[in-house]
Design brief:
Beta-lactamase; 5-stranded antiparallel sheet; about 45% helix; binds glutamine
């Protein structure tokens, strides 16, 4: 498969040039820092299983990771709980928005780790004595996925914590149901800081590649999570990663992915590559408009659709 990858990806800047012409979508305005995002920003990167990384212009422009952090929080929670996280969280798609105030019927568990309720819990299941300890562990874990030292944008984290009313509501609801074990405000604080970690397209592509390569980072060579954890995470990305747009995504792109309100999309094509696009204007489901177009083209060009058998 990496042979065909080499043959087809001539120049990510060609692809970037084509998708930049798209003017649809609007930038998220849930916090001031996201509202100020540059709508013209468009960075693309591919990280292949052999450790080669290919980038377009602006692949080194950083944004806050936002919900693209959720697969990695799930991975770290599975690692740190020895898999017990699977008993504490559902894995079924919701067909609803990422911040829906809804828990699993009958259990009061979060529906899946890719919506906010789930990520509030997975961030709280990562090892650490308090908010500081869990944040440190998360930043170190994300850095291992990216093969570089990442950091939190404290202004973004502060706004997320202050203005994330629906996240506070979800954390309190899980407390009431007995499915959230840490204090509601602490849960939101850690999740807000995880969402505020800065990534560029290059880092995000390497993070996606680590999941695609059975948990082994193809750039650093580090086994970041066991193969079973990577498999579980990518499976849930496939069914829940684009929220109520997951079915449409799977049909048109056919590669497990996670979207985010900062305009990042991370892709994990098992055994082949990780990829990322960062471009802020979003569609109604909170998916980057240019990101979707770029991912459709990449998938078609590289033959990545997991359900498209060769005729
Ligand atoms: N930090 C955002 C929130 O919790 C992330 C949402 C997203 O990227 N979809 O609302």
């Amino acid at each position: 498969m990496s042979g065909s990858t080499d043959a087809h990806v001539h120049d990510l800047d060609d692809l970037r040039g084509r998708v930049r012409a798209e003017r649809g979508g609007s930038v998220d305005d849930s916090i001031p820092q996201l509202a100020q995002a540059d709508p013209d920003l468009c960075g693309l990167a591919l990280a292949l299983a052999d450790g080669t990384v290919r980038t377009s212009a602006q692949a080194d422009v950083a944004v806050s990771v936002q919900s693209a952090v959720k697969p990695f929080l799930f991975a770290l929670a599975l690692l740190d709980t020895g898999g017990d996280a699977l008993d504490r969280i559902g894995i079924e798609p919701t067909g609803e928005a990422f911040d829906a105030i809804k828990l699993e019927t009958g259990t009061g568990r979060p529906p899946n780790p890719m919506v906010n309720a789930g990520a509030l819990l997975t961030a709280s299941l990562v090892e650490g004595d308090d908010v500081e300890g869990r944040t440190e562990r998360i930043v170190a874990g994300l850095s291992a996925f990216a093969a570089r030292d990442l950091e939190v944008d404290e202004d973004v984290a502060h706004s997320e914590h202050l203005l994330g009313d629906r996240n506070h509501a979800l954390a309190h609801l899980m407390r009431a149901e007995g499915t959230m074990h840490v204090g509601a405000d602490d849960a939101v604080a850690v999740y807000a800081r995880a969402c505020a970690v800065l990534v560029d397209a290059r880092s995000l592509a390497v993070m996606g590649a680590t999941l695609a390569c059975a948990g082994r980072n193809p750039v650093s060579g580090e086994q970041v999570v066991p193969p079973r954890v990577a498999r579980d995470v990518v499976s849930v990305m496939a069914t829940c990663g684009v929220y109520d747009g997951s079915g449409r995504w799977m049909r048109s792109v056919g590669v497990p992915a996670k979207s985010s309100v900062s305009g990042g999309i991370v892709l994990s094509a098992p055994g082949v590559l990780g990829a990322a696009v960062i471009s802020p204007p979003l569609d109604a489901q909170g998916t980057s408009v240019r990101g979707r177009i770029a991912c459709e083209e990449l998938s078609a060009d590289l033959g990545l659709h997991v359900f498209a058998a060769k005729p």
